Amino acid sequence: MNVKEEMGRKEHYRRSVWPTAFHARTSELNILNEWHRWKDYTTADAYFDEQLEYAAIRNACAVFDLCPMTKHLITGPDALAFLNRLVTRDVAKIKPGKVGYTIWCDDNGQVIDDGTIFHLRGGVYRLCSQERQLDWLTRSAFGFDVTIVEDTHDVAALALQGPTSCAVLKAIGCAGAENLKPFDIGYFPFDGAELMVSRTGFTGDLGYELWIDPAHALALWDALFDKGKVHGIRPMGTHALEVARIEAGFIQAQVDFHPADQAIMTDRSRSPFELDLAWLVDFSKPCFNGRRALLAEKKNGSRYRFVRLDVEGNKPARSAYIYDEDKNVVGTVTSAEWSPSAKKNIAFASLHMPWGRPGDELWAEIYYQRELKWYKVMARCRVAEQPFWDPPRKRATPAQDF
Amino acid sequence: MTDRDRIVIVGAGHNGLACAAYLARAGREVVVLEAAPQVGGAAVTREFAKGFRVSGCSHLSYLLDPGIARELKLASHGLKWARTGLKTVALAQAGDHLVLRGGKVESGTVPEADRKALAEYHARMLRFARVVARQHNRKPPRLGGGGRSEMLGAALLGFDIRRLGREDMREFLRIAGINIYDVLEEQFDSPALKGALALDAVLGTNLGPRSNNSVLSLLHRLSGEAAGNDGLSIPEGGMGAISEALAAAARAAGATIRTSSPVRRITLEGDRVSGVELEGGEKVAAQTVVSNADPARTLLGLLGARHLETGFVHRIRHFRTKGMAAKLHLALEALPSFARLSAELVGERLVIAPDMTYLEHAFDAAKYGQCSPEPALEVTIPSLHDKSLAPAGKHVLSAVVLYAPFDPRASGDEARSELLDRALAALDRHAPGLRRQVTASELLLPADLEREFRISGGHWHHGELALDQFMMLRPVPGAAQYAMPVGGLFLCGAGCHPGGGVMGSAGRNAANAVLAMERAA
Q1: Measured on CA atoms in the order A15, A16, A21, A24, is the torsion positive or negative?
Q2: CB contact under 8 A, A286 and B304
Q3: Quick check: B378 and B400 in contact, CB under 8 A?
Q4: CATH class assigned to B3-82+237-319+461-520
Q5: Nearest partner of B85 among B67, B68, B60, judged by Cα
Q6: How many angstroms away from the CA of A137 is the closest CA of chain B?
Q7: pTM to 2 decimals?
Q8: Overall average pLDDT of the B66-86 stretch
Q9: Domains and CATH numbers, chain A
Q10: Closest to B419 in 3D by CA, of B382, B371, B353
Q11: Is the pLDDT of residue A1 over 90?
Q12: Facing residue for B306 by CB, picked from A107, A143, A292
């Protein structure tokens, strides 16, 4: 019995973690046999070598199995009105055929999750989220003529990221893919089906996300790896992606912020301002979840500041406390990696106000182990005002082949 | 004065009218828009059969705030009482009726210990009800945050409880959240006495005697008497007379009251109200809109969920509003004769609640979607006190019938005729031949009350009075101070603190909230 049938027969409880539509291929390629559970799907941590997988993202192209990402189709006459009340940005500005990054808040202006809104054809929207959101979306739909379907399992999705990604797309038959601008959506015939391609991703590089009916998933994978061979295509796991997303400056729910609907302590959640996402809040909309609280926060000030840090030395400052010059704890690191591309030791941190101003003297307390012995360093941190990885090829249209 | 300074009040229920009167007295331009052809909402006197008039929903006054009656000079605006201080007569099948007045058993067989316990019980419950009554005219404190006035409000509540004294405070805190069944079981033996006392704790609620919060409901009911009014009373001309007097007070202060003017929606400009639009399409501009309609109707109906935030809408949707009390009106060709009940007692409040188990069984059925097989009743024959209600020699009977589910499993028509039949059978057992004296009848189920009085759920308090929907949690946390999240929109009905019953306090408190908001702006 396949997965779909099992779900249909309500036999899903017999199995708590599911294979994705690409499992037949990913399981062959995962010679390390390293997996984890991502929203109840079997997902590769790494396939053969996480550093080489990362190198493929920045120097050739890499394929990431995106099936587990929670996806919703939002339809109905009030789809736009519903989304505009749900999220903080103005969805009317996301034209048909475009994608927009967004966040959504609870009534207190605290971030529940972030994700992307795809404005598809015929007034249909797709909302992709980090966390399961059906409950909040359904609750938010009261009073709107809108239908929300979580169709995570009905769409096979891959991220194809890196400088040669456009060349590979063209090689599998997506003629004209190079003309897609960042955040554009295009449709291409493939294997007798329709392949949706969006110029989006989580790596901060030239890259695409591919969306197709799961029946054609393996054909898509095979075509990519067949035609992509000369372009250096590799599979990548979540470890490689993690380095790339931190370089690109992208935050992640459960890591860089605690979703407000899961927070028990009131000071554990964060507002958009406290995640450096003020640009996503559009107060010209008369009503959206969190608006009143965010207006008050804008007036009265925020509690926290989210910063990108350039840390001295080469030891990743994972989970480090951040101190001011007087050795007071002023915050913590949420994500940290050594950036091979920027050649920098980088981190994200959530700091109490007012710390984190450019020029503030900050120190990270870093612990690391060598042969079971612990060492500690106090590393000076500089607040970085730009992402650590932002190459022109990310934006260049038409996209180059490399 | 421009259109922008106008205050529109949606609904001329007694709270809307009280609010209008206070705002007009403060010099504001007030327009009250009422959907029905007459004022009063659920405090209304209406003809249900040719020549027979009756209080259409609420039929006894026991919560009217004496301060409001005085300040608005309701007596000089025409409010007269046909009867005050009604006794309670608990009808017994064997004819051994209990006659209760305050803490005294005036007649009926009750053990001596129970008589003594009743005096103590009544005095204690009134002391507790006084704590509730003291909160009536205060804005409930905001929880978690707010300035000095919020802290003071919370401190005052604590102080009111503390000054009951050690023993009373302990007892108050012990019983305020529990059920009347346990409390009465501790103190009394007589099943008939317990039945009659328990009825007062569950009338108009979605509670049986064993349901928690029934003590709170009783304290709310007693809080009018604790605040100094004259107990169970019937106005001359029925409950509508209270509304008429409030309307006269509002008009005298300069308010405009338009009946037959149903509001279709509350209009917005940005995130502030800009007025209302009537069913006919007419727009009335206003800086402030105060709604006497229930919270769900106001916020989800007239305003619309899309103009509010998800969490708030969710809380409003789950404000418990399902009523369980039906209202019975009978036109009688003659005064019914109750077995072994002296003539002068027929005009008192008659109750059929022979014991607490009877009440609990009646509740059990309704809990599962059926009308009570053996309903409990609170009966008045107001035409004995007010001849204007029925043709000469004839009478009207008005009764609250417990329990009727809001959404019965059977169709509404079936449930209605079933409960009518059972209520008549119960009355006929105590007043043989009453059934044959009925020339016209009307039974309003909660769903009928919802339709007729435009109250979501047909609950006469606009929503269950329970600790989780009380004071600073009423109707929902974050909206308990009359001002709603949308700028310029206020609630003033029974869905707000201090709740239902014909009191006027919610209306007055809302008027104060409007004026305070103006001062702060």
Answers
A1: negative
A2: no
A3: yes
A4: alpha beta
A5: B60
A6: 9
A7: 0.94
A8: 96
A9: 3-67+155-248 (3.30.1360.120), 70-144+271-300 (3.30.70.1400), 303-385 (2.40.30.110)
A10: B371
A11: no
A12: A143
